[in-house]
Amino acid sequence: MSESPHTILWKRVTSALHGRAIGPASSQGALAAEARTKLGTDLVERFLNGYFFERQYGGGNSAMTEEQAEALVRQIENLPQPIAPEPVERAVPRGVILESDKPMPTAATTRDWSVLEEAEAYGEEERRGSPLDAVRQWVLELRVRGDARR
User: Of 13, 38, 53, 130, which sits 20 to 30 A from 7 (CA to CA)?
Assistant: First the structure.
């Protein structure tokens, strides 16, 4: 048994759309909507509503003749490729990185500084920290005094 003309035409439509990176979709209507969005045309919707659905589910009759449907399929096959967005040219040489689209991992760059360590890093004395910082400070002072005696 051979395939019916409307099924053959639909295969040509889907082949033309897949060649333009449209589909596969969950339904015929979704494929038509994607074609409208990406290609800016309603040819697929006109083919489906005016010919395919009526032939497939409406008892084999449609307002559109096979010749008209064939002409519509040829228009779909001749649609241009979707326009890809042009890459952004940067004025900075490739070796220089000014920004990154990737988020920085917080664990690798953030260190849990204590108030004491932060104060020591800037050469300040800090005594307002936690009790643990007070112990650290006392141990540090003992080390400094021991080094001074040597």
Answer: 38
- Residue-wise DSSP of 73-96: HHHHHTPPPPPPPPPPP-SS-TT-
> What angle do the packed helices 5-18 and 28-39 form, to 10 degrees?
40
- Omega before 87 within 30 of 0, i.e. cis: no
Of 28 and 85, the structure prediction assigns the larger pLDDT to 28
| Residue 38 pLDDT grade (very low, low, confident, very high; cuts 50, 70, 90) | confident
DSSP summary character for residue 67: H
Q: What are phi and psi of 62, to 5 degrees?
A: -150, 160
Tell me which residue has tokens 């990406």: 38
State the angle between helix axes of 5-18 and 66-77 in degrees (0 to 180), rounded to the nearest 10.
10
**What per-residue confidence (pLDDT) applies to 63?**
82
Map residue 62 onto helix, strand or coil. Answer: coil
C-beta of residue 63 within 8 angstroms of C-beta of residue 50 = yes
Q: Does the pLDDT of residue 71 top 80, yes or no?
A: yes
Q: Which amino acid is at 97?
A: I
Q: How far is CA 44 from the centre of its chain?
A: 26
- Taking residue 69's Cβ as centre, other Cβ atoms within 10 Å add up to 22
